[in-house]
Design brief:
Layout: H1 2-6, E1 12-17, H2 24-32, E2 37-41, H3 60-65, E3 68-69, H4 82-98, E4 102-107, H5 110-118, H6 128-141, H7 143-153, H8 155-160, H9 166-179, H10 183-186, E5 197-202, H11 208-224, H12 227-237, H13 252-259, H14 265-289, E6 294-295, H15 296-302
Parallel strand pairs: 1-4, 1-5, 2-3, 2-4, 5-6
Helix pairs in contact: 4-5, 6-7, 6-9, 7-9, 11-14, 12-13, 13-14
């Protein structure tokens, strides 16, 4: 039955989007019991090795049931751009299709999805979290030091931008961190289309208060599962800082501040839950802007 339902969509991938704690991973694993799926993670935190508890990363049992891609890609002291994820995801989907399996892209990093379907703009839209991180680094090291970083990653832009022009330094580094490419090389360029068809579905919880309760319960479960010890271990193993993308992830950011003595345990928990709820709100706003999405129930029915 399932194979017949999918037969018209040869060379096709599926995507399952939704806010954090909405049940995307559970639905994906249920679908994997019905179809020969391989899952491509669309999660900007699960790409980091060692960020397991706080990202709800699939464990050995889930990975044995269905191969997962774009998980544990780099160490947490490195950066992973939207542009790199797009290239890696296209390559992963191509490999899955070549093996005769069904690719299912699953996650809540909406910037990744927009880049996948629309390509990367020559100059991507401003990213508030990236800018906040750059501002924090500037307060610590100064804009001159950030200009030195720009000179390393985009010499052409650095030659045009004065060392005191904080706004333009910020924008150039923001583009680099979002795309993994120098701003000077992106001007006038757009990404090519996808080499496969894509059908996308959204898992949108009807009860927002129930979602908020699941968010709080899930963070409490992460604490019980050793999230603080995980961050302590990462801090001892890698040269991390609060400004790195891995440590800016929701939950990790608040745990970092707690370990630094800036938040009590209660404050850390409250701020992490609040930040996760805000993240879910932003994800839902993104989902409303993607007109091509169909309800997740249709995805489940197509695999019956």
């Amino acid at each position: 039955m399932a194979a017949k339902a999918l037969a018209p969509l040869r060379n096709a991938a599926y995507a399952l989007l939704g806010p954090t704690a909405s049940g995307k991973s559970q639905m994906a694993m249920e679908l994997a019991r019905r179809m020969p799926l391989e899952i491509v993670s669309m999660d900007s935190a699960q790409v980091y090795r060692g960020l397991d508890v706080g990202t709800a990363k699939p464990g050995a049992a889930e990975r044995a049931q269905a191969p997962h891609h774009l998980i544990d890609v780099i160490d947490p002291d490195q950066s992973y751009s939207t542009g790199r994820w797009r290239s890696d995801a296209i390559a992963a989907v191509g490999g899955i299709l070549a093996r005769g399996k069904v690719p299912l892209i699953v996650g809540g990093t909406m910037l990744y999805y927009r880049a996948l379907v629309s390509g990367l703009d020559a100059l991507p839209q401003a990213d508030p979290e990236a800018r906040a991180a750059l501002n924090a680094e500037a307060r610590e090291k100064g804009w001159s030091a950030l200009h030195d970083e720009l000179a390393r990653v985009d010499p052409a832009a650095a030659r045009r931008i004065p060392k005191r022009d904080a706004q333009r330094i910020q924008r150039a580094l923001e583009v680099w961190r979002l795309t993994g490419k120098p701003m000077s090389s992106l001007q006038g360029r757009t990404s090519a289309g996808l080499p496969f068809a894509l059908k996308a579905f959204a898992l949108v919880p009807a009860d927002r208060e129930a979602l908020a309760q699941r968010i709080a319960a899930r963070f409490d479960a992460m604490l019980a599962a050793g999230l603080l010890d995980e961050v302590r271990r990462l801090r001892s193993q890698y040269a991390l800082s609060a400004g790195l993308p891995s440590m800016r992830a929701v939950g990790y950011r608040q745990v970092w501040l707690h370990l630094e003595g800036e938040l009590t345990a209660a404050e850390m928990r409250a701020q992490a839950v609040a930040a996760t709820r805000q993240l879910a709100k932003r994800q839902l706003t993104w989902l409303r802007s993607f007109r091509e999405l169909e309800p997740a129930e249709k995805l489940a029915h197509s695999f019956l």
